[in-house]
Amino acid sequence: ALAAQAPSPERPEALGVSALPTALESQHLSALPIGEGRSKFEVEVTLESCKGLLSLGPELEGMGLAFWFSYELFGMVLQTDRFSSLAAPNLSVTTDTFRLAGSLHELEMVLRQSAPLAIFLCSDQIVLAAAQLSFPEVGSERSPAGSLAASTTVSAALAPQRLGALAGAAFLRVRIQLRSEGPVEEGEPCADL
């Protein structure tokens, strides 16, 4: 079952990766270091669309509440723009890009520790629903030059976090892409922490 707690900047330990710099510490870096490797990676998370949100709280429609999606990744809490209707959500396509520095094995370890990625549908003081997503397989698609490219797009069910909400009626479409800048340094396999 999903925890009914939205991401919080006060909970970096939820990542299970205490060695990562905080968002404030990493703002001046060109890439967030995830280990000793020097390869540069980009992880893109795109929230593309949603449907069926009204089933998660029909009584909330028309109450003047704001709604948004939120998730935590690599110690950073991200939120979409707010929208005012569950019946006709005006969700702008939102892409968040994370630049990471490390080896391929370090990237695999960090993604494994960050999985599943939980994305929450929030409103004022409540979490309405949550979706859990997997990251694409790292290293599954390599170019002849040795660079990495992997992508997955999924329509994830939003699991209700409130009593009385209909399960299986609401979905969030998300695309997750992994890319490297140039050839990838393999590094040594890392043990799970």
Layout of strands and helices, then pairs:
Layout: H1 23-26, E1 32-33, E2 39-51, E3 67-73, E4 76-79, E5 94-102, H2 104-114, E6 117-123, E7 126-133, E8 149-157, E9 159-160, E10 171-180
Structural features, described:
With 193 residues, the chain is mainly beta. It is built from 2 helices and 10 strands. It has helices at residues 23-26, 104-114, and strands at residues 32-33, 39-51, 67-73, 76-79, 94-102, 117-123, 126-133, 149-157, 159-160, 171-180. The strands form 2 sheets. A 5-stranded mixed beta sheet has the order 1-5-2-10-8. The chain has a 5-stranded antiparallel beta sheet with strand order 4-3-6-7-9, with no helix packed on it. The longest helix has 11 residues, at 104-114. The protein is elongated, with a radius of gyration of 18 Å.
